[in-house]
Design a protein that fits this description.
Radius of gyration: 28 Å
CATH architecture of the largest domain: Up-down Bundle
Shape: elongated
Largest sheet: 3 strands, antiparallel
CATH topology of the largest domain: Receptor-associated Protein
Strand order of the largest sheet: 2-1-3
CATH class of the largest domain: Mainly Alpha
């Protein structure tokens, strides 16, 4: 069985932070190798994601978020009712319908029976529990407030799901319309228009400019080599995209492009700001200090550009800058965000202010989605009308001229 390269982050026996990579045939073998080297891993994940997915070591995200929400809510309710951790896990395992997530919970229970704490057991399943969730559980264990922490995590995941659905809804309509339009136009240029080309050629009709352009496009699309060129182009683009995503500069560059897409880029930016605000508030309310909170948020920020900004903020804070000054230096947050946060810092209520900001951006996203869909519908319909009209003119104008010549 070929070995997989696993990236890890954790602590040595002396409590020092460490990170690196190791080769092993499975996730369990990688974990055992790190234990032999005296490393307690808080994050362990395969670099070769596609192969690990086929091996079943990475949980497919479809349905996992709902399973997590149900698990956190149920576990919190059972803990509040006085159930011990093992009994609570046993009950939640039987209630979980997601197969991969259920297997993760069973592995967590086995780790706890072997002497691990709940946070340590969660850390061994990075595909199911993020570093943020592990850190939150660790804080809850220390404070004796696991039930409150789990409720907060469930509420956060529910807000994340709602935002994701809003953005997906905003993208769905234009995506469906454009896909349908491209499919229809491609069908006409490869099937219908070539027949008219033969007809016009047989009658030696003087063709208008729009018809000549249409016939030229049709001739290119119907060439036997065209599908191969398109396929090779898609493969090359996919390879270049994959290579770019393997490097930090490449991921940041692509993320900058995503954030600058007209209309939708601003929507994505607002979603990320809302996510960061809610995450930071969640961590601060749980007693995590600001520096550690920023570190925990790096892999779950949802944007390489914003993750780099959070890392830069840590350096600014270490050099003596205030929290508001560090955020303002990133140039990624608008004036309203900074003004509200500055007000919260003055009153000592940064965590509550961040929740207020997150709720504001969530409402703004919902309103933007409604406005965007209302604005895009006539634009897309106009686009379809123009394309259809041009094709109709290009086809029927020569026919009209031909009939006129016959008369």
């Amino acid at each position: 069985m070929p070995a997989i390269i696993y990236s890890y982050r954790g602590f040595t026996a002396t409590g020092e932070q460490t990170a690196g990579s190791t080769k092993a045939e499975s996730l369990d073998m990688a974990r055992e190798d790190l234990k032999r080297r005296g490393v307690i891993a808080t994050l362990l994940e395969p670099q070769n994601g596609a192969y690990a997915l086929l091996r079943g070591e990475i949980a497919i995200p479809w349905g996992r978020r709902q399973a997590q929400i149900q698990f956190f809510r149920t576990f919190a309710m059972l803990a509040r009712a006085g159930k011990n951790t093992d009994d609570a896990l046993a009950i939640t395992v039987t209630r979980t319908t997601n197969k991969l997530f259920r297997e993760s919970l069973m592995a967590v229970r086995a780790e706890m029976n072997a002497g691990a704490s709940l946070s340590e057991a969660f850390a061994t399943r990075p595909a199911s529990f993020s570093p943020l969730q592990v850190a939150m559980i660790r804080v809850g264990e220390k404070a004796g407030a696991i039930d409150d922490i789990l409720d907060r995590l469930a509420a956060f995941l529910e807000e994340e799901r709602a935002n994701s659905r809003r953005i997906t809804g905003a993208l769905a309509y234009p995506a469906v319309v454009l896909t349908s339009a491209i499919s229809l136009v491609t069908f006409m240029f490869t099937t219908i228009i070539p027949q008219f080309a033969t007809f016009f050629k047989s009658y030696d009709v003087e063709l208008p400019a729009v018809t000549k352009v249409m016939l030229s496009i049709s001739a290119v699309l119907t060439q036997p080599v065209t599908p191969l060129v398109v396929l090779l182009g898609c493969v090359a683009a996919g390879f270049l995209l994959y290579r770019a995503l393997q490097t930090a500069p490449g991921r940041i560059a692509l993320d900058r492009v995503r954030l600058r897409i007209p209309l939708f880029g601003n929507l994505v930016r607002k979603s990320i700001v809302s996510r960061i605000s809610r995450l930071l508030s969640l961590l601060l309310q749980s007693g995590v200090d600001i520096d550690q909170s920023l570190e925990i948020m790096l892999p779950v920020a949802g944007s390489p550009v914003f993750a780099q900004a959070l890392d830069d903020m840590r350096a600014d804070l270490a050099s003596g800058s205030s929290f508001v000054q560090a955020i303002e230096t990133t140039k990624l947050f608008d004036g309203l965000f900074i003004a509200l946060l500055d007000s919260g810092a003055e009153t000592g209520a940064v965590d509550q202010t961040l929740i207020t900001i997150a709720n504001y951006y969530d409402d703004d996203i919902a309103a933007t989605v409604v406005t965007l869909n209302a604005a895009l519908q006539p634009v897309l319909l106009l686009f379809l009308g123009v394309v259809t009209t041009l094709i109709a003119i290009g086809v029927y104008l020569p026919l009209y001229q031909l009939v006129s010549n016959v008369r």
